[in-house]
Each structure stands twice: as structure tokens, then as C-alpha cells.
Write a structure and sequence with these properties.
heterodimer, A: alpha+beta, Alpha-Beta Plaits, three-stranded antiparallel β-sheet, two-stranded antiparallel sheet, about 15% strand, elongated, B: alpha/beta, Ubiquitin-like (UB roll), seven-stranded mixed β-sheet, 29 strands
């Protein structure tokens, strides 16, 4: 008897609650910046590709959805010849982002990726690259590491002295 | 001296006196990390990573130079030692460029491993880093001084291991660098041992540069397709493409030694001129056709010629597997009913086995070259033609004071350490060797290596000379290519069947076949005899199985594209008669292994020659070929099994003019070498035999 009364009382109370149904897609839900959605490849502050094709994301990926091929440009800068993510396999675990040593691969708060054709879920590098540094502004791997590339010779990286001519007697 | 007993980390360890602490620990499963220490080379004690705590010793001692002593108490992972190693790593990393994501060594770098283990990832150094320019020293060697930790492994392996001395160091302290011998580039063997032995990514390979990562590839241990030394090369394969070769796991008879061919010359596999479809001559032109069309054309012709009793000529190869050679001779002798079968011989193994007449323990193995007390090299520039044997002899000299004798037409690298080196004209090597009689007889045992300079009757006289010395003598007949020895063992000879069993009738040898104007069918498997001799018979129907459109293939009526040694399974036998197993590494569209082609041809002709699966054919070889009843587990696990000698005499005389080595150097390898861009790209060392 009491439980029936209690039930009716709760139903009555809920009639005055705020509705939580979101009228998607007319209304967009709020997603935190660190939400794990569509994967992008970012660029460094100088506009260059951040990805150095180290294969760590492909190694970390539990479902093997990342495929890439490393190559180098004439100046010695290593970059991916192709970079392919098969989103029909991706489980958005974020391991790739965690593995990435250069902040290149990032997950974004975007989940609207529905397609009618499965092959359309395979994103190539041009689909993944964005024009910005994403969540990590200001970081450029090539400024930190002591490898010479086009526009940055040995000795021009952060905290790096000019190279010494070993054939000279004066160090 | 009796063994000494010491304690390492509380574990009682017994070792021979003079053993280094690091070695004694390793043998008992205790790893002491080290960058500069390398087994088999001189001691350096440069990196200070192997410092260990020894009781009653006030300071830490380097385990790589400290010999064991009775009652010693060693701690390899005490808090003090760990703290010191962390500090040493911090020193090593103080100038490190922090480029692991783009470094080719990433994932298999010893410096990375140690940084993970001892946690020296954060640096306290605020001083400016000093980094030298990256340099390309040769088509295959890149050097980045920034990554170098100056362990001098590369300098030592080049100097001591190879005897090339192409690397050195310049300047001192933080700015010292490794430098090449020719100022800004290398003039050397291009063997890549320095790259392999580098514990960090300072030396990287030109072929593998920025291509992949170690964990991305499958590592397939197979046998090098080039010379007859039978080195094991571990090919790293990704998506059916070979990306690099090395033998870091030290499996196989060569340990980790590889020359430029084993390490880099695999690029013929993906050469653009590779045949990938059967070709059939239609209206005088070779045109790509389907497999069934090509097979039926060849089978129809074979059947027709066989029915009218025409003349066949079959020429086998020195790079195809034992299974394929065995099946080919079976096909020729049983299927086609011809005795005309031969291959291009490069060493007189037949006469050697006959002269030894079944004597056990008179055939040298690759291990014998490392343990023998004395060695006599006759008529071969080992460092150019048989780099593994040269390496073994040199290692023997370094470790066991080998006494080497050299009899060659010109100067060779072995002169540097040989007790006596004699220059002799071609054809007079035996007389020159005889002048060494008194020296040789003083040794406890002897290995004689001889090339194609000693052939026919000279081999018999050499064996008589060896017998007259009164010491145990072993012989090694040097041949040219990966399975030159196997081709002979499998009976690709006009007068000898498998296992050197004399046949009823003597067939034509390959020169006679080409000169025979009445030849109806010439079947060439993986060989290019027409590059030097013209085919006399104008109407001969020529069937060729090869990787490329060679001179012979251009003359052919049917060409089958065959798989190279890196694309099939089977076994090969090296110069020393050691059988090893090939594993399929690469995949190439449109080709078939020669065994499959022969099997399908037999099926198309309606012959029953048995099943053509490599393992099944090898079972038959083990049953029927003398000396090949080897232990299967040894071969299956990637080991080398020694084949027995032919028991008894071989009653044939070998025409000496048929035996001729192609004279390949380090940078040539017959047809395959022509199609290997990497071998052709090395310009600095033209690699002539007997350099002045």
C-alpha cells in the first residue's frame, strides 16, 4: 500500500523536473575539449606537418586501423608519404594520441562521421590534416631535436650550440 | 689452471681464470649493460655502463675489463651501481639530439633501452648542446655525430673484424667524431657491419633509411642468394617487400657477419625488369601469355620431341634449391629420357670427393676455419670472393693465432697477417704450395681452401701432398654461387646422378649441348649460358625459367618467370657442404618457384614424377642421395647440417676446361648482381680481384 503511494508521489515529482532529452540534431550537445572523437593530424606553429611517421600510433592501435608509410623530403625532414585511418575500425580509445611523440595525432570533440558507404570511412592524410596546432599550441618537434632539416641547420635548435669544425685545432 | 669461483649478486659462479666479469655474468644469466664492450673484439672501457661493485674495492670497477678472481663478491645491481649508471646515462645523453621519433634505431636502440631501465630521461644539463653535421659516407652508410656515444664499436669491427680499417676518430672530448678513411667518404667493403654493431642510431643504412620501424616488419631468417658461403641473413619484410637484411640474432654459421650482398643486395627482387608473366614466342616475338598457354606449349613440344626420339639438352642452375635441382635431373632422366644434363661448374668438387674416396672428417666446415691451427689458401682472393671464409680465418687469427699461408696470383688481404704469402702464376700454385711443405708439416692440423685454380688432376696431387704432410688435413673446394655445391650433389652432371652415382650413359655437357647442331630442345632453368656461347642449333626449341629477360631468355620460345631464392622454400648447400633451409620472405606477383613450374610441366606432359612440394622432395633426397641423410630438426630450426662425403671412388674424369669460376668480387654477383641497383651504386671500390 505504502509503496504504491510512494511510486505515485515520485511520478508526480518528476512531472516538474527539467527535461534532459536533447533535441539532436537541432540542438548540439556540449562536448569537453578532451572528448575522444574524430582523429585529426595537426600542424606545427610554423605550418609544417607535425607527423614524423614514427609508427608509434600504428603500434599502439589495438585494432590496427592506422596505416602509414614513412619517407623523407630532399632536406631530410621525415614525414608520412601516406597516412590512412580506417574509422570503421577505430574504437576511439585515444592510445594513438598518447603514443604520439610530437602531438601530431589528436582526437577532437566531433563524432558526426556517419556514412552510407563503408569505404568512405577510410580517411587519407588530406582528410586528416588540419590547419593548426590543435590542443597543443606552440610545440614544434623540429625546433627541439638536433636533426638538420630544410630551414634549420645543426646548431639552430633550442639549447643547441653551433657545430664545431673538427678539422680545426681550436675547439 | 683450475676454475675460479666467485659470487655475483649472491649467486655462486664458476668461470675459467681470465674470464671477464661481464662474460662470466652473462653466461649465468645476469646481464651487465654495456655499450662499448663487444664479444670478440678488443676491450675499450669507454662507456662506463658496466661498472660493478666489488667487495673490498673502494671504487666501482668496469666489468668489461676486470677478470674474475677467486672469492670475488660482485654486485651488479646494487643501489650504488644503479645510481652510477643513471649518472653515466645522463652524461651520454647530455649531448643527445632527442630525435628518437625520427631515428631509424628507435625501437631497437640500446641507449633507449638503458634510459628506460635506469630512468635518466630528464636532463639537468643547461649548457648548449654540440651537434655535428650529418654526413653520407657512401651509398649505404650515413653518420650523424650528434647521436654518436663514442663507443668505438664500429672502429674496432672494421679494423679488427674485417681488416679494412676504414673508420677512425678525430679530435677529443665532446667534439670528437668518427671519421671515414677518404676524408668525406668511405672506401671500403661496404659490408655494413659498422651500422649493425652501432648501439645507437649514429650509423644508419642508406637502404633502410626512414622506411619503417623494427616492430612493423616480419623478420625472416633465410640464406643469402649470392655467393656460396651460405650466410644466414634475416630479412625484414613488410607487406611482402624486403626492407633490410641483417643477422643480429647471430643464428647461422656466419654469426652476425654479412657482406654487402647479404645485407643490401636484395633489391633485385623488386627490380622493374623482373619478369612477371610467362612469355611465348608468337610470330617471332615474345608475348605475355597465361600460365596454361605457356605450359601447354612447352609440354606439347617436349612430348613431340620425346615421341620421335629427338635430342634434349637440360641446363640447371647454381642458385636454385636442392629440391629443384633434384627434381630437374629426375625430370630429365626419367621424364624426358635424356642424359644431357649439366650446369656451369665453378669448382672441382667431384675430383676432390673422388680423391678423398669417402674419407670421413676430411671436408672442412665453416666452423673448422675458426678452430684450425693452420690454413692454406690457394688461388682465391677470399676477402673479395668468399667474405665469410675470410672473416672466419681472420677471427681465428685474432683469437687463436692461426698460422695462415697464402698462394695467389696477386696481393690479397690475407697477406696482412699470413705467416707466408707466395705469389705464383696461374697453373703453378701447386709447386708454390709444395715449397711450404716444411712450414705446413709443423702445424697440428691444416685446412686447405682452393678455388678453380686447382682442378682435375691437380686436385688429386693436392690431396696426395696433404696426405704426405702427416697431419690431419681438411679440404674446402670453393665454388661460386649459393647452391653451386648442391647442383653437383643433386646430380646435375652428364655422367653422375644424385650423390655422385655414375650413370649408365654419359650425356653431353653444356658446352657440347650448345655446340650440337642437331639439338631439338634446350631447357634452361635459371641459368644464362648464351651470354658467352652461341647456340649452334638454329631450330632448337628453347625453354627458359628465369627472373629476368637474360640473353638466353631473349632467344627462348617459352619463358617462365621464376621466383628468386628469397621468395621460396627449399634447401641449399654451401661450399663446405652444409645444408641450410630457405624461408620465403618476399612475395612477387605472377612468378612461381622453379619446382612448381617443373611440377606443372610434368603434369601437363602426363608424367608421374611424384609430388612437387619442397619438403616431400627433400624427404626423397634424404632417402636416396648419399650424404644427405641429415638431421631434419637441425635444418628445420635454421641450423646448418653437414652432409657426408660420397662413400668410395667416383669413376669419372672431369674435363678441366668445364670448371671455371666467374671471378665475382664483393660487388658483383653474376646475373643477380647486374639487377641489384645497390651493388651497382657502389662506385668507390670497383672490387677488382688481386688489387695491386
Amino acid at each position: 500500500m505504502f509503496s504504491v503511494v510512494r511510486t505515485i508521489w515520485y511520478v508526480l515529482l518528476h512531472m516538474f523536473h527539467k527535461r534532459i532529452t536533447v533535441q539532436y540534431p537541432d540542438e548540439k550537445p556540449y562536448l569537453a575539449p578532451r572528448y575522444r572523437g574524430r582523429i585529426i593530424l595537426s600542424r606545427d606553429p610554423d605550418g609544417g606537418e607535425r607527423c614524423v611517421a614514427c609508427y608509434l600510433c600504428a603500434a599502439a592501435c589495438p585494432v590496427d586501423c592506422i596505416a602509414l608509410q614513412a619517407t623523407e623530403d630532399p632536406t631530410g625532414r621525415r614525414y608520412p608519404e601516406f597516412f590512412r585511418i580506417n574509422f570503421s575500425r577505430c574504437i576511439f580509445c585515444g592510445f594513438c594520441e598518447e603514443a604520439c611523440p610530437t602531438y601530431a595525432i589528436q582526437l577532437t570533440p566531433d563524432f558526426e562521421m556517419g556514412e552510407y558507404q563503408r569505404p568512405n570511412l577510410v580517411y587519407e592524410k588530406e582528410d586528416l590534416l588540419i590547419n593548426g596546432p590543435g590542443k597543443y599550441p606552440g610545440y614544434n618537434f623540429w625546433r627541439v631535436c638536433g636533426v638538420q632539416i630544410g630551414g634549420k641547420d645543426k646548431g639552430e635548435a633550442e639549447n643547441e650550440g653551433p657545430p664545431v669544425d673538427i678539422h680545426s685545432l681550436l675547439p | 689452471m683450475p676454475d675460479v669461483t666467485l659470487t655475483i649478486n649472491g649467486q655462486a659462479v664458476t668461470a675459467a681464470p681470465g674470464t671477464l666479469i661481464i662474460e662470466a655474468a652473462r653466461r649465468h644469466g645476469i646481464e651487465i649493460p654495456a655499450f662499448c664492450y663487444y664479444e670478440g673484439y678488443s676491450l675499450q672501457a669507454a662507456c662506463r655502463m658496466c661498472l660493478v661493485e666489488i667487495e673490498k674495492n673502494p671504487k666501482l670497477q668496469p666489468g668489461c675489463t676486470m677478470p674474475v678472481a677467486e672469492g670475488m663478491v660482485v654486485l651488479t645491481e646494487s643501489p650504488k651501481v644503479v645510481e652510477t649508471r643513471k649518472a653515466m646515462l645522463e652524461f651520454l645523453l647530455s649531448n643527445h639530439p632527442l630525435d628518437c621519433p625520427v631515428c631509424d634505431k628507435g625501437g631497437e636502440c640500446e641507449l633507449q633501452d638503458m634510459s628506460f631501465r635506469y630512468g635518466a630521461g630528464e636532463s639537468r644539463f643547461t649548457e648548449l648542446k654540440v651537434h655535428g653535421e650529418e654526413q653520407q659516407w657512401s651509398p649505404v652508410v650515413y653518420y650523424d655525430p650528434a647521436r654518436c656515444i663514442l663507443c668505438y664499436r664500429c672502429v674496432r669491427v672494421c679494423d679488427e673484424g674485417l681488416g679494412v680499417t676504414a673508420l677512425g676518430t678525430q679530435n677529443r672530448g665532446v667534439i670528437s667524431e668518427i671519421i671515414p678513411n677518404a676524408g668525406d667518404h668511405l672506401v671500403c667493403d661496404e659490408c655494413g657491419m659498422c651500422i649493425d654493431i652501432c648501439p645507437v642510431g649514429a650509423l644508419t643504412s642508406g637502404t633502410y633509411r626512414y622506411k619503417s620501424r623494427p616492430w612493423e616488419m616480419n623478420h625472416v631468417g633465410t640464406i643469402c642468394a649470392h655467393c656460396s658461403d651460405g650466410c644466414k641473413t634475416t630479412l625484414a619484410v613488410r607487406d611482402g617487400e624486403i626492407l633490410r637484411g641483417n643477422n643480429r640474432d647471430r643464428s647461422g654459421i656466419n654469426g652476425e657477419f654479412l657482406c654487402i650482398k647479404g645485407r643490401y643486395a636484395f633489391d633485385f627482387v623488386r627490380h622493374p625488369e623482373r619478369l612477371q608473366s610467362p612469355l611465348l614466342r608468337v610470330n617471332g616475338e615474345l608475348q605475355p601469355v597465361s600460365w596454361s598457354e605457356a605450359l601447354s606449349a612447352a609440354a606439347a613440344k617436349f612430348n613431340e620431341v620425346k615421341a620421335r626420339g629427338g635430342r634434349f639438352g637440360v641446363i640447371g642452375a647454381t642458385r636454385t634449391t636442392n629440391e629443384e635441382n633434384y627434381f630437374l635431373q629426375k625430370f630429365a632422366r626419367q621424364g624426358l629420357g635424356t642424359a644431357n644434363i649439366d650446369h656451369r661448374r665453378s669448382g672441382d668438387v667431384v675430383t676432390l670427393l673422388d680423391a678423398l674416396s669417402g674419407r670421413a672428417n676430411a671436408l672442412a666446415t665453416v666452423e673448422d676455419l675458426y678452430t684450425a691451427k693452420a690454413a692454406l689458401v690457394i688461388g682465391s682472393d677470399l676477402a673479395q670472393q668468399h667474405p665469410l671464409f675470410a672473416f672466419q680465418l681472420r677471427a681465428n687469427w685474432r683469437h687463436h693465432q692461426l698460422t695462415a699461408y697464402v698462394v695467389t696470383p696477386g696481393p690479397v688481404r690475407e697477406d696482412l697477417y699470413a705467416a707466408r704469402a707466395i705469389r705464383s702464376e696461374a697453373g703453378k700454385e701447386l709447386e708454390a704450395a709444395a715449397s711450404l711443405r716444411d712450414d705446413l708439416a709443423k702445424s697440428q692440423d691444416l685446412v686447405i681452401l682452393f678455388g678453380d685454380a686447382i682442378k682435375g688432376d691437380a686436385v688429386r696431387r693436392l690431396v696426395e701432398f696433404g696426405d704426405s704432410l702427416g697431419i690431419p688435413v681438411k679440404y674446402l673446394c670453393l665454388v661460386d654461387y649459393a647452391n653451386s655445391r648442391g647442383a653437383m650433389d643433386m646430380g646435375l652432371l652428364p655422367d653422375l646422378g644424385p650423390g655422385y652415382q655414375p650413370t649408365q650413359t654419359r650425356g653431353l655437357n653444356w658446352r657440347e649441348m650448345l655446340a650440337d647442331p642437331a639439338l631439338d630442345v634446350l631447357w634452361v632453368v635459371g641459368e644464362d649460358p648464351l651470354e658467352e656461347t652461341a647456340l649452334a642449333s638454329a631450330n632448337a626449341f628453347v625453354v627458359v625459367q628465369d627472373l629476368f629477360l637474360t640473353e638466353t631468355a631473349k632467344r627462348a620460345d617459352v619463358v617462365f618467370p621464376s621466383a628468386s631464392a628469397y621468395e621460396k622454400t627449399g634447401t641449399v648447400t654451401n661450399s663446405a657442404g652444409q645444408v641450410q633451409r630457405l624461408k620465403q620472405a618476399a612475395k612477387v606477383m605472377g612468378v612461381k618457384p622453379d619446382l612448381d613450374i617443373m611440377g606443372l610441366l610434368a603434369k601437363e606432359m602426363g608424367l608421374n614424377l611424384g609430388i612437387w612440394i619442397p619438403d616431400k622432395v627433400f624427404e626423397e633426397i634424404r632417402r636416396t642421395v648419399r650424404g644427405y641423410n641429415v638431421a631434419l630438426p637441425v635444418i628445420a630450426t635454421g641450423g646448418a647440417a653437414q652432409t657426408g662425403a660420397a662413400d668410395g671412388r667416383i669413376p669419372v674424369t672431369v674435363p678441366p676446361e668445364l670448371i671455371r669460376s666467374a671471378g665475382d668480387t664483393l660487388f658483383t654477383s653474376g646475373t643477380l648482381g647486374r639487377y641489384s641497383g645497390m651493388l651497382r651504386s657502389v662506385m668507390e671500390a670497383p672490387g677488382t680481384l688481386y688489387k695491386p
